[in-house]
Amino acid sequence: MTKNYLIVGNWKMHTDIGEAEDLVTGLAGAIDPDGVEVVICPPVVFLEQCSLLVQEKAANKMSVGTQNISWEKEGAITGDIGINMVKDWARYVIVGHSERRKYFAETNNQIAQKLRLVIGARLTPVLCVGEKRFMTGDVAEVGKEMMEGIKEMSPEAMKKLVIAYEPVWAIGTGQAASPEYANKVIGELRSWLKDEYSFDVAERVRFLYGGSVDGKNALSYLKQEQIDGLLIGTASTKIRVFSKIIKDAGKLSKKE
């Protein structure tokens, strides 16, 4: 079966407005993502500008996502970002990234609330889950994060969900999980969804791998049966690297 890969670039707290515009323009000229869905997630202060630029220069080549939203729809939460503030500019929302869990002490309950807001706004959530200890092979920690995040989600809502398996020990460390290990963990997570929901739901959920992905190892992950795409951090701010990953994914899609 042919895969339509999903490649998500999380720019994190990188780029100024000029660099963000250059990235969008450069990617628009460098990619022709046949068989690949491309999403860029700039810093939220550049979200509107990047969205307008994508519409102008790359409407058929990429979509825009946001890196985070609040667990509350609105209210007296200084500095936070409500779903209504981004829904006109983003199609995707990253939820529960390990850096949010670590530095901002986000809980599984808050993450579950965020997922409900994203689904309610008819956007696509990218739920991040991952274990802290190095390649333990124990999926229980990851599975607990996933199941507590998706609690009360309907089968129809689940089919719109993207889950990014990002082992915490691999994020930004240069120490990526082996493709076989990532494939095994994602396969087990998919089995959890089959038990909780159904085979159809489990197969419709798209699973990404993230954690020290670069132009050298990206293809090895995409070749794995259970992996439907990638969530890429800092490497996605480098046009040559990110465009190479997208092109490699497109070539692989055509072969399958």
Mean pLDDT: 93
Q: Within the largest sheet, what's the order of strands?
A: 1-2-3-4-5-6-7-8
User: According to CATH, what is the topology?
Assistant: TIM Barrel
Low-pLDDT stretches are none
What helical percentage do the residues reach? Answer: 40-55%
- Annotated CATH architecture: Alpha-Beta Barrel
Shape: globular
Q: CATH top level?
A: Alpha Beta
The total count of helices amounts to 11
Strand composition percent: 15-25%
> How many strand elements?
8
Class by alpha and beta content:
alpha/beta
- The gyration radius over C-alpha positions equals 17 Å
The largest sheet is: 8 strands, parallel, barrel
CATH superfamily name?
Aldolase class I
Order of helices and strands: EHEHEHEHHEHHEHHEHEH
Distance between the termini: 6 Å
> What is the total domain count?
1
Can you tell me about this structure?
It is built from 11 helices and 8 strands. By secondary structure, it is of the alpha/beta class. It has a single domain (5-255), classed as TIM Barrel (Alpha-Beta Barrel). It has an 8-stranded parallel beta barrel, surrounded by 5 helices. It is globular and about 45 Å long.
Task: Present the secondary structure layout.
Elements: E1 5-10, H1 17-30, E2 36-41, H2 47-57, E3 63-66, H3 83-86, E4 92-95, H4 98-103, H5 108-120, E5 124-129, H6 140-149, H7 155-158, E6 162-165, H8 179-196, H9 199-204, E7 206-210, H10 218-222, E8 229-232, H11 239-255
Helix pairs in contact: 1-2, 1-11
